[in-house]
Amino acid sequence: MTIAARFDLKLDAQDKELLSRAASLMGTTMAGFVRSAAKEKAQTLLEQESRVTLSNRDFLAFNAAIQGAFAPNAALQEALAAASKVKRA
């Protein structure tokens, strides 16, 4: 069972008329129209924010970095050696 949560919204008369007309065109209620439009906008925004967009130059630099040979630095080598000693104990 889905629990409904309430969300109240105050609009000026022009905005209410605009939403009402749009809802009528879609064959839905104003609440249904606003809910659908807000959900669609939220999903689009969240999807855009979850992506990383790189310029071509940055993509090439990133790709070269991950394709190159990996050589651990001294700090990582020490951490790996310490972790290896803990496993043996």
Which structural traits does this protein have?
89 residues; mainly alpha; 4 helices; 69% helix; elongated
How do the helices and strands line up, and which of them pair or pack?
Layout: H1 13-26, H2 30-49, H3 56-67, H4 74-88
Helix pairs in contact: 1-2
Low-confidence stretches: none
Structural class: mainly alpha
* Number of beta-strand segments: 0
Oligomer: single chain
Mean pLDDT: 91
Helix content: 55-70%
Strand content: under 5%
Rg, please? 27 Å
Shape: elongated
Q: List SSEs in N-to-C order.
A: HHHH
Summed up, the helix count is 4
What is the terminal-to-terminal distance? 52 Å
What about the largest sheet? Answer: none
Structure description:
The chain is an all-alpha fold and 89 residues long. It has a domain at 13-68. Helices cover 69% and strands 0% of the residues. The chain is built from 4 helices and no strands. It has helices at 13-26, 30-49, 56-67, 74-88. The longest helix has 20 residues, at 30-49. The model has no long low-confidence stretch (mean pLDDT 91).
